[in-house]
Amino acid sequence: MGLTESLADYFDVHKHGSSVGTEIIAGITTFLTMSYIVVVNPSILAENPDIPGLDGIAITGYTFGEVQSMLAVVTIVAAAIATLVMAFYANRPFAQAPGLGLNAFFAFTVVGALGIPWQTALAAVFVEGLLFIALTAVGAREAIIKIFPQPVKMAVGTGIGLFLTIIGLQAMGIVVDDTATLITLGNLASNPVAVVSIVGLFVTFALYAADIPGSIILGIVFTTALGWGLTTFGFVSPEAELVAGSSPATYDVTPLVGAFVSGFGNVEAFSFALIVFTFFFVDFFDTAGTLVGVGQVAGFLDENGDLPDIDKPLMADAVGTTAGAMIGTSTVTTYIESATGVEEGGRTGLTALVVALLFLASLALVPLATAVPLYASHIALVVIGVVMLQNVVDIDWDDITNTIPAGMTILVMPFTYSIAYGIAAGIISYPLVKVAAGDYDDISAGQWVLAFLFVVYFVVRTSGMLQAQV
């Protein structure tokens, strides 16, 4: 029996109506559409000394570029580990990597706004990863996800899309702070970063619309090259910062691997429990929303909006999150781009295996990650954010008891810069509007419990209790 036949038999390829060739093409397609994370994740997690307020991982004795290259390596390894588990355990065509939105929560909220040391943040991710493994093993995560209100399930993807979009637009100089209106349009014509970003963004949109594989990474490369060319040939001053600072790349990730262990000693027990509690809620429901969003785009959901046999993909996510924290990156999750491979015909874990192998091969390209400026890498956030808006059509907007929780979920995420707040707002509002409308039978006991727990979450997160303890 040859390799092709062995792979087909192991992954039950023919049983799922696919072929080895189709699965390979699907895996290549998925990898190309999500490979931008190798560049984007380090740009979000690494603390940039030139941009005040963008906190993250900073390592004494190492430059920003060196930290970026370390994070690129651990991003690749974490993605490969999680996706291999998805391939061999779950046998699903889903690919995983450190999640957009979750990495922003790690850097901007936990490390930045709360002032938590990044080592402690990694320790919190590690602990919630272990909790997820335990909850998934007993079926608790699947049970909780199934009691998600239907309109909230369908709204999460769109809310995350808006959240990612505003992060990207800020990094590109298109959206800026305003004392009167909080945000406003930047001075685009006088800002070279904004001009180059806009050109790169629309080139990327065009490539994406033309269904060109790897359109996002091609857009990032084009934008980086455009900024470099304008600076090199004297059209724009070097002070415009269109070119990323040159820093040596490094494959030595020892300062990150195991750093979570020291994080356990940075805070006392109650404070750490509150941090884990916060991470737990964000990660749990963000991961659930992303999985449902991927299933929604791929057409895998059943008539109730649930993903069949979701426990195995959840276990891959839990293992990936735990392993990722151990080597130095934020929470790992399933990528919405997995749907592109599904659309190419991928139906089994063989697709995921191809993605994992391509991630490992991309280790050779780590030095290039430090050459990509922030504005170019964040084009990916805007493109993916806009694409994720298409999920909004699956919400029953004619029913006001669906409109309110769905609308709250979508709007609160970007306006509060928090995925968890958006999900919380949707889940809390759902039973309230159902009771007001007299639809008592539409509310389960579990949904009341979720609503109560999220009220507790709001109290913990907004009362100053967490900040007072750290």
UniProtKB/TrEMBL annotation:
Pfam families reported for this sequence: Xan_ur_permease
Record carries keyword Protein biosynthesis: no
GO CC annotations, alphabetized: plasma membrane
Keyword terms: Cell membrane, Membrane, Transmembrane, Transmembrane helix, Transport
Spans traversing the lipid bilayer: 20-39, 70-90, 97-116, 122-140, 152-176, 188-209, 216-236, 256-282, 350-369, 375-393, 405-431, 443-460
Alphabetized PANTHER family for the sequence: XANTHINE/URACIL PERMEASE C887.17-RELATED, XANTHINE_URACIL PERMEASE C887.17-RELATED
Name of this chain's protein: Xanthine/uracil permease family protein
